[in-house]
Amino acid sequence: MLTAPSADRTYQPGDKVTISGTTQYLTAVTVNVTGPDGRTVHTASALDAKSGSFSTEFTLDADAAAGDYSIKISGIGLPGDHTATFQVVKASSSIALTAPSAGQTYRPGDKVTISGTAQNLAAVTVNVIGPDGQTVHTASELDAKSGSFSTEFTLGGDAVVGDYSIKISGAGLAGSHTAAFKVTSQGDSVALTAPSAGRTYRPGDRVTISGTAQNLTTVTVNVTAPGGQTVHTASDLDAKSGSFSTEFMLGANAVDGDYSIKISGAGLAGGYTAAFKVARQGGSVMLTTLTAGQTYRPGAKVTIGGTVQNLAEVTVKVTGPDGQTVYTAYNLEVKSGSFTAEFTLGADAADGDYSVRISGEGLVHDYTMPFKVAESIPAQGFLDLDKHWAQKEINELAAKGVLKGVTETEFKPDDRITRAQFAAMLARVLNIEPKQETDLTFQDVPAGAWYHDDVGAAVQAGLVSGYSIDVFGPNDLITREQMTAMITRAMLMTQKLEKPDQEAVAVILQRFKDENAISTWAKAEVALSVKQGVVHGKQSDGFFPQDFATRAEGAAMISRFAASLQ
Length: 566
Description:
- By secondary structure, the chain is mainly beta.
- The protein folds into 5 domains: 2-88, Macroglobulin (MG2) domain (Immunoglobulin-like, Sandwich); 94-183, Macroglobulin (MG2) domain (Immunoglobulin-like), CATH 2.60.40.1930; 189-278, Macroglobulin (MG2) domain (Immunoglobulin-like, Sandwich), CATH 2.60.40; 284-373, Macroglobulin (MG2) domain (Immunoglobulin-like, Sandwich), CATH 2.60.40.1930; 383-565, no CATH class.
- It is built from 7 helices and 32 strands.
- The chain has helices spanning 391-399, 419-429, 452-460, 480-494, 502-509, 523-531, 551-565, and strands at 2-4, 10-11, 16-22, 28-34, 40-48, 53-59, 67-74, 82-88, 94-99, 105-106, 111-119, 123-129, 135-143, 148-154, 162-169, 177-183, 189-194, 200-201, 206-214, 218-224, 230-238, 243-249, 257-264, 272-278, 284-287, 294-296, 301-309, 313-319, 325-333, 338-344, 352-359, 367-373.
- It has a 5-stranded mixed beta sheet with strand order 2-8-7-4-5, with no helix packed on it. It has a 5-stranded mixed beta sheet with strand order 10-16-15-12-13, with no helix packed on it. It has a 5-stranded mixed beta sheet with strand order 18-24-23-20-21, with no helix packed on it.
- Helix 1 packs across helix 7 (551-565) and helix 2 (419-429) packs across helix 3 (452-460).
């Protein structure tokens, strides 16, 4: 009785074949194997069978013919030969291309790499044909025994624009494998939107590098210091949408000088370079008594005050809508890091946009801030909320002192909200004040800033934290998921709630088509706020967690949160 191979067993050329079985009343057996053509491929004579079993094995040749093989077992005392069969089949060969990717585009002069995996092939030949039918590259008999292959070539500087065809062939490959790529004269390009040309930072500052990209899927950003050392690298940033962004914090001991930004990407000829400066002693100004777009009546007193760093004196100049100077204060002395100037608008001051410009020796760029003059200012409500979807919530919260406009007449609902603005909203709606005995350590939250007390209260209450012990980032924008996390902390502090478990989170968030875009750390917070009705999605089925939140969205969340407290 044969125990191996089993009935209908199939092998491939090069496989090992074991033939074994059991016997009764036999001392020896002979095994003979013949191929499809009748030729003997293996013989084992007089195999010992006294123990009641026997076995023999052999290896099929690499070029073994496909078909049915016959096993014949004979022995003295065996009434007739015992026969069995097995099959040999040749495995199919295949190619899978790994580069170039589908639809990849190159420019004249670019290097083209063609690589892939090969199954059951010893060698392949790669042939590339241009739009005009001319062969532009051939690589014959590339070794594919390891299961992979690769070849590369450089397109000529005068390469024809159009569709190029890749044809891969090999012995045993049923038909050729074909692929394609394009050559275009339209160059890939990068345009930087931040930092601006000549921008200067100080050690410890946050640096944002962002821009637009044309015909690029990814870009890599590398920043080097004046000494050539790399201070930041962001590899393979997604640029399919036509834009990219990365940010990092300069070290507190960052050296002064010129820093180089180099942006590279597959298909970007030569890379894109830009620069910014770091100046440890560079002066800076921050206004604390005037906000952008603030509105005054003719005859009103205008106070211009702020904080400065590394400046001994500043000059304040105010110009009217017609460009004429309406007020100047030369060489104001800076005392304890701050300054103040004030003047009274004329009773006949023209309506329109006014500009404040502050200059000083050591200030890298003049500091400017606009404000408005209007004859008539409504007693309540904001002029820019008519028919806005959040008009009711904003006006109600403003009446309670929870929200403030950017001016007396404007709320700017669709402007992006900052960390300081939302922290202030939370502090006011909860009616919390900072503990006087606790001093804030943030260097960017000066004592005279409008948001100082509110940020202090929110930080001390655990609603929000800084980036570090020294940096809060009051003017940084926040995403919808970041804002949701802040308001969820407030909910957990004020109400008997618990974050949902992982299974509940998945159920709650499945309503959003972009649930996978919600950061892992924020999923539970978003789920809880959605469940409680404090946070809604945008449009019909999206949450858009990475979108920067607007002032109106912040106000709406605060309004719903306030309602949940009642």
